[in-house]
Amino acid sequence: MAGKIVFDLVSPDRLLVSTEVDQVDVPGSEGDFGAMAGHQALVASLRPGLVVLHDAGRGPIRYFVRGGFAEVTAERCTVLAEHAIAVADLDRAELERQLKDANEDIADAKSDDDRHRANQLVGQLADLITALA
Length: 133
Prior knowledge:
Layout: E1 5-10, E2 15-21, E3 23-28, E4 31-35, E5 42-45, E6 49-55, E7 58-72, E8 76-86, H1 92-108, H2 112-132
Parallel strand pairs: 1-8
Antiparallel strand pairs: 1-2, 3-4, 3-6, 5-7, 6-7, 7-8
């Protein structure tokens, strides 16, 4: 059996996770990939999606990330995310309420800038709701 890989998840304001796991699944911009101990070194940009931690002693742990980079070495996988949140901390009903409000903001927008900001928020909220599926 392969050894563990050290995983760190860092957002702009704090270190969210630092642990050892069997495997980490990462949403790379060129496609999802899994990192395990002994992995070839790489740096990849991220797309919005789920980082999934797999460890034999517990079920998968999922984090939603939006943007950033992943650096993988033979011993470590570090994800530097623009935004990251534990899926377990998401509330579907609240996200759906916010999505409804954001869609109303698009319809009520008085300027292109307001419409653009509301459209971005709709996309972000839709990504979070998808992560809950």
